[in-house]
Protein: non-specific protein-tyrosine kinase
Amino acid sequence: MDLHGFLKALARRWPTVVVCLVLAIGAALAATGLSTPVYEARAQLFVATRTADDTTQLNQGQSFSQARVQSYAEIVTTRQVIGPVVKRLRLHTTPEELASRITASAPLNTVLIDITVRDTAPRRAARIANAVAERFGAVVERLETPRRTAGSERVRGYFSRSGPLPASPVTLGVTQEAVPPSVPVSPRPLLNLAVGVLGGLLLGAGLVAVRETLDTTLKTSEALGEFTALPGLGSIPYDKNAPRQPLVSADVHSKRAEAFRKLRTNLQFAQVDDRPRIIVVTSSLPGEGKTNTAVNLALSLAEAGISTCLVDGDLRRPCVASAFGLVQDAGLTTVLIGQARIEDVMQQAGGRLSVLASGAVPPNPTELLASARMEEVLHELAGLYEVVIVDTAPLLPVADTVGLASLAQGALLVVRAGKTSREQVRTATESLARVGVRVLGTVFNMAPAPKGDRYGAYGRYGELPAPRTSPSRGGAGAPPVARGAGGQ
Structure:
């Protein structure tokens, strides 16, 4: 998946990103609200050497202090420093726990030591920092003081066994006492919010990427064409009113009606040299809109002045008759078993469109549809009409369509956007190819409506003004709304 495809996936699955973003921000705010504020107090010490006024000795003392100061910082959290502080301040904690809240650092090329204490109370943090600094200075001076041995004697008048005690070569002074901080260092609301936003976006993008990787359905007509290498004859936009108004004749100026007119035109130009007259319309699974496509394609052909016959070849779940409000009990099965002739059961749906309903549901639809009598019926219809559209059962659940499609001159494969998987489309096309059916192309059904106006200022070019009706005529001439219901 390239960057362009990933961005399109993000735009298509934006609710997932929004939900992850809201959850992450909520978690960040909850963590901020439930966290106990932590304050940080800092004291600073200066390490000096006791040397004479000689410049050489001063430089040596400076080098000595810098060399030792890194080691001094490691002593701050030892028990001999922290233990007395706990006792002196009467803290209800252990030296080890207090040491975990104390850090000491010595900036490079300096003789400074920074002591930082974290605590939930700002005043207590400052008291602990100052007490640790004081105790730390005393410990370091004691450690640096040379020990007087029992055999010490006066050497060159310096000291003897009864002389003064030796002094520490270094001294530590407090350059900055700790003061109670006014602002906690933790939690940090803005930082937590930023982390929540970033984490939510990354989580949402990750989930979208995973879902796109695992989702094998076809989202665009271009992806369908690339996958099947079949011409895409039409892309029918999703219309929430389609179940209540399955026929596009109810609104001839809608985008859906225009899409079926484009399908009709593309079908007419797709096979100019060998134009098929018997066309089956099928799909991989139920619910992809094959019946709706067959019905409205037949209507569109009839509107163009082409004599068309629509045959309901789905003998398991027939829906054509109900879409037009016609009689279903007499039709194709009646003709196949010899109880009636074609002209006896043919019904008119207006204009140049004739409908051959399914008839009674038989116990053996597969055998009937693949029979020699079915082939005779189709050829007879082809002799009476310019185009014969046959609505069939879905390919994968039952074997009815495979036998029937082999008797036709071409097939249209309906694929539902975002619903039909690649494997299902592959299996369906292979099933048709095995019986030598010529697949004329695909119809991408229930496609998402394009964002914005594709033609800009000319977007309503194809829409005609509503016809004005005279009060005396009472709106006569308006197209009737067909009865029946069906999926898109």
Summary: The first strand starts at residue 39 and ends at 49. The chain has 17 helices and twelve strands. The radius of gyration is 44 Å. The chain has a mean pLDDT of 83.
